[in-house]
Amino acid sequence: MASHLALVGCCCCFFLVATAIALNINDYGAIPDGITDSTQALQKAWAEACAAESNAAVVVPAGQYVIGPVMFKGPCKSPVAIQLDGTLLAHPDLRLYRPNWIEFQYIDGLVLSGAGKVDGRGSAAWGSNKCRQNHISNCRTFPMNMVFSFVNDATISGISSIDSKYFHVLVFGSQNVTFDSVTVAAPGDSPNTDGIHVAVSQNVAITNSVIGTGDDCISIGDHTVNLTVSGIACGPGHGISVGSLGRNPGEQDVVGLAVRNCTFNGTMNGVRIKTWQNGPKDLAVRDLVFEDLTMNAVENPIVIDQKYCPSGTCPETLKPSRVRISNVTFHNIKGTSETMTAINLVCSQTFPCEAVQLSDIDLKYAGSDANATCINVKATVAGDVNPAAFCR
Ligand SMILES: *[C@@H]1O[C@H](CO)[C@@H](O)[C@H](O)[C@H]1NC(C)=O
Ligand SMILES: *[C@@H]1O[C@H](CO)[C@@H](O)[C@H](O)[C@H]1NC(C)=O
Ligand SMILES: *[C@@H]1O[C@H](CO)[C@@H](O)[C@H](O)[C@H]1NC(C)=O
Ligand SMILES: *[C@@H]1O[C@H](CO)[C@@H](O)[C@H](O)[C@H]1NC(C)=O
Ligand SMILES: *[C@@H]1O[C@H](CO)[C@@H](O)[C@H](O)[C@H]1NC(C)=O
Ligand SMILES: *[C@@H]1O[C@H](CO)[C@@H](O)[C@H](O)[C@H]1NC(C)=O
């Protein structure tokens, strides 16, 4: 199989020649005509790569491949690579999915790279999505483009996720996963198309990427530990959000998040933490840094919302959120807000936010002064913070 390397014509051939057996899916019967279902060929090439004694690479050359649900399942005998140069087109028959499209499970050592695309062809499904935006708990009915669960030591680079029917990417139960130079693209009005959702995972990094979609660019679920986000251009989309948290009894703490050097363009939110009221147990969200961020025409640039109520009809009698938010830094955040309240921090009456630091912030509203809300927050303010935040 190594003889096919000469045909790949990619920038990484030296790497492949040196370390890997290449398994071209066309040799397993895949047909890049944009019509023929090539799922079995891809699945067979994976099975062989995963069983190989030394590093193997599944190669998807340029071309359009129609692919139904695929499970890339480990454990594998050695680390495995997928060189994606072609486009994977989601099979149009929604009944095939159970429930997601491309899943990676129980893999230690994965490199997914190339200039290829994963195209969920979501426009056919979005119209029948009846879930309220952000109200995701009871409506996981549409396939996500890519799910990485129980995957360790993985690098995903170069590829694009296009028009997912639901979240583009989910990372769950995984450690040491890096997304670098990826692109996520879907229309700003596509429902529930979160870019990358990370939960129950540790040491995940998302760097130098462009994410424009219909929901959060990056969303962070419970039990996320040490997530690094940097060099992201977000927009359209709903911004980078922690939560919503504090509703389910099984949730565990979020500890360690750095969001640096990102640009938000025309998004609904910039950076946001949202928690429900009336929670079943105490939970912590701590050690968060948001810095070196540019907001261009962002509706709500800086938000902590501990009275999260997407339905808009929560009774006043709900008990305050039981999520303890502490050690959160907002530093060097500049640009423009589309609403007057550029900084909106509303914390829990029971557990006020602690050790919140605001420094070097300059956010304007329609060329004039914005304002700030800061309730139940123990904050320190340093350097110029505009709008001035009077926290109580
Ligand atoms: C993740 O990386 C850390 C630091 O390199 C290492 O100690 C840990 O064993 C890795 N975890 C897994 C599951 O590979
Ligand atoms: C946090 O994750 C990054 C990789 O994203 C890793 O380099 C770093 O060592 C981790 N930090 C800790 C304290 O584990
Ligand atoms: C900031 O992110 C951009 C990509 O959006 C990258 O090109 C640049 O090198 C990053 N700068 C720093 C200081 O990390
Ligand atoms: C920002 O968004 C606007 C409106 O969608 C678009 O025209 C513009 O090109 C975007 N700018 C950047 C830097 O992405
Ligand atoms: C606050 O968070 C930062 C990083 O997010 C961490 O380095 C620091 O140790 C934390 N401080 C405390 C007092 O826990
Ligand atoms: C900010 O301005 C809006 C619009 O004028 C106003 O409704 C709101 O009360 C102001 N908030 C603060 C904290 O001043």
Structure report:
The chain has 392 residues and is mainly beta. It folds into two domains: 13-125 and 142-189, Pectate Lyase C-like, CATH 2.160.20; 216-309 and 320-392, Pectate Lyase C-like. Helices cover 7% and strands 52% of the residues. The protein contains four helices and 29 strands. It has a 29-stranded mixed sheet that branches. The longest helix has 13 residues, at 39-51. The protein is elongated and about 65 Å long. Bound molecules: 2-acetamido-2-deoxy-beta-D-glucopyranose (6 copies). One 2-acetamido-2-deoxy-beta-D-glucopyranose is lined by residues 203, 205, 226, 228. May function in depolymerizing pectin during pollen development, germination, and tube growth. Acts as an exo-polygalacturonase. It catalyses: [(1->4)-alpha-D-galacturonosyl](n) + H2O = alpha-D-galacturonate + [(1->4)-alpha-D-galacturonosyl](n-1). The active site is at residue 238. Residues 1-22 form the signal peptide.
What attributes does this structure have?
29-stranded mixed sheet; signal; mainly beta; binds 2-acetamido-2-deoxy-beta-D-glucopyranose; Pectate Lyase C-like; galacturan 1,4-alpha-galacturonidase activity; 29 strands; 4 helices; hydrolase; 392 residues
* Terminus-to-terminus distance: 67 Å
Note the overall shape.
elongated
Indicate the CATH class of the largest domain.
Answer: Mainly Beta
Helix content: under 10%
- Secondary structure tally: strands: 29
What would the average pLDDT be, to the nearest integer? Answer: 93
Instruction: Return the structural class.
Output: mainly beta
Major sheet summary line: 29 strands, mixed
Number of domains: 2
Strand content: over 45%
- Ions and ligands: 2-acetamido-2-deoxy-beta-D-glucopyranose
Number of helices: 4
Specify the CATH homologous superfamily of the largest domain: Single-stranded right-handed beta-helix, Pectin lyase-like
Subcellular location: Secreted, Cell wall
Keywords: Cell wall, Cell wall biogenesis/degradation, Glycosidase, Hydrolase, Secreted, Signal
EC number: 3.2.1.67
Protein name: Exopolygalacturonase
